[in-house]
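Supplementary material to the annual report.
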Amino acid sequence: ILNVEQSPQSLHVQEGDSTNFTCSFPSSNFYALHWYRWETAKSPEALFVMTLNGDEKKKGRISATLNTKEGYSYLYIKGSQPEDSATYLCASDMKSSGDKLTFGTGTRLAVRP
Amino acid sequence: EAQVTQNPRYLITVTGKKLTVTCSQNMNHEYMSWYRQDPGLGLRQIYYSMNVEVTDKGDVPEGYKVSRKEKRNFPLILESPSPNQTSLYFCASSWWGRDTEAFFGQGTRLTVV
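Predicted assembly:
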C-alpha cells in the first residue's frame, strides 16, 4: 500500500478564521486526487476530484490546489463556520491501482463559535 | 434521490455467527467497493467490483466475501466473524473512470463479541 498522509491530524479554529491542510501522496503513477468531507454520523461526501497538475477547484468558501509533480494538495477554508466542523479526507488514485482509492487518515477540524 | 443504502446501521454479533451487510445504489454505477474504517487508519478497501459478476480483492480482504449478482447490489458477507472485524464499514459506488467521485453509504458499525 502506498501512503497518503494528511496534516495536521486535528485543528481547532475560531469562527471566521481561514485555515488550510495538506495531503501528501506518491507522485509517481498519479491519476487523481479526491477530497471528501465527513461529518460525524454521516457519509463522506465528495468535495473535489482533481487530476491536472496546477489544478485549482473551488466550492463556496472551500478551495483546493494540486501539485502532482511534488505530490501534494492543499485544502483551504476561508472564513470557517461551525458547520465546517468535520473530518476532511483525501484519497489518491494511482494508475496501477485499478480505480482503488488510497485514503489518508484525515484532518479533523473543529470550528468554535 | 441518488443514494447508497447500507443495512443495518448498527450490529452487535457473536464470534462465528455468519452475517451479511447489504449495500444498494440507485445510480446505475458500475463500480462498487467496501471499506473499513479503524481508529488511526484511513479507509481501507476490502473488496471491489467493476461490474456484475466481476469482483476482486482490495487491501484487507481476509475474512470477507462479496457478490455482485445485480448491478445495484453489493453485499458484504462475514462467514465467521471475529472480534478483529469490529469496525465501521462503508459501501461506496461510482462511475467507472478515475476522475469520478465516490458516493458513500451511511456506514455500518459492527461489533463482534
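DSSP finds no helices and eleven strands in chain A.
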